[in-house]
User: What shape does this take?
Amino acid sequence: MSTAPALESSLQDIEIDLLLEGLYRVHGFDFRDYSRGSIKRRILELMRAEQLTTISEFQNRVLHDAACLERFLLGLSVHATAMFRDPSFYLTFRKRVVPLLRTYPTVQIWVAGCSTGEEVYSLAILLQEEGLYSKCRIYATDISMAILRRARDGIFPLAAMREYTANYHKAGGVHEFSDYYTAQYDSVIFSGSLKSNLVFSEHNLATDGSFNEFQVILCRNVMIYFNKELQARVHNLLYDSLSMFGVFGLGNKESLKFTPRAGYYEHLNEKDKLYRKVA
Amino acid sequence: MVFEVVVVGTSTGGLKALQTLLSGLPAEFSLPIVIAQHREKDLDSGLCEYLGECSSLPVVEPDDKEPLLGGRAYLAPRDYHLLIENRSFALSTAESVRFARPSIDVLFESAADAFQTGAIGVILTGANSDGARGLATIKSRSGFTIVEDPASAAARQLPDAAIAQATPDKILALDQIAPCLITLSESQPSNELLRRGAVETAIYYGR
Assistant: This one.
């Protein structure tokens, strides 16, 4: 006999608690304070992809089968993104942040939760065009080594270039976007000169601490997957990692309201969620 | 039955349908209304402002973790999924569902999880099937389900799919949906909800 839908749903919530607790205690990956709605969808999709019908069975496989664990971690952390996503953000970055960066001898930048690197390459292109890239170092971090390997390769689907080219021009780009990559079959590889000052490394916002002081930190559409408690932790961590008057960028629909650091920044541009640390 | 939220999903033809629905609701409507309308991902179409002009209720695109308040209509932002959890909004840039972001299924399934029997789901005109599964989820948790009559809908594919998958509680002509929502919202201590909404609004905006 199958369980009633409402009971089934609360049973699933318990199973998810157990799975995430097990994953943390066995492997140290801490997803316990991820936003429940999103992670539940994700886990159910991955469970179905493994041809399983209960999360308890899925837990058994994730904890005992290394290959399944790797698929699970990869699946949980991949999120669709785009180069120059929200072009007006990059346009404002060019107009308002680039002049600030010109006043520094060197610029340390952290892209926290870089996923497959679209944002990192977008930033590298922008900084190169503004003549700033040679004095910048961009630290791009994510929790998954497999994802970071893809980001480091800088290989993206050719089919996405049309959208990225349009975004690039809306973001104030004045060159041919295709100058930045070489196409081969159905993929493109981004130019080696963009990679010279990129440092990719593993970092877990949920458990790791600060590792440097930065003049710019971008963490866009990463914390939307966290609950309020974890968001508070990460806001504190990023605040502590940013130099005074450093620039902080969030996603379009993220807000500093309700975070412990709300009063510590001023807007550079409210609409584009670019802030400056002032306290 | 105490209802706590109305979720609305629509695709093709949705602009006009939402205009009719929202203009039929009074400013003192006590429940939060959360709308997923399929829309172009890189066009800031002014949809939110436009709907605001048609409605006595304020219409806003919520930020991540913004609390859900009565007496307001919320529109899923373009190029994000909108979810509800713990009486707050959560956004996601996960892959499109049935070619849609925002996806109606994602919103409705999260509303069913968050509110169980307290969710009212409304499916309006649309030309694909995203939303049918979400409505069925609300129905399976004994929430209340309404579908716009396919016979008079601008595009009938979504209402047809929703009726087939969810067997909704009501199939109504577009102009009958707002009166039905008013009746459902009045079947409960709405003054308490409104009062709570006003207090929470004041806290949210720091007044």
User: Anything to note?
Assistant: Residues 16 and 55 of chain A are 7 Å apart (CA to CA). Residues 5-77 of chain A form one domain. The radius of gyration of chain A is 20 Å. Chain A touches chain B at residues 5-6, 9, 35-38, 40-42, 79-81, 166-167, 221, 223-225, 228, 231, 251-255, 257-258 (CB under 8 Å).
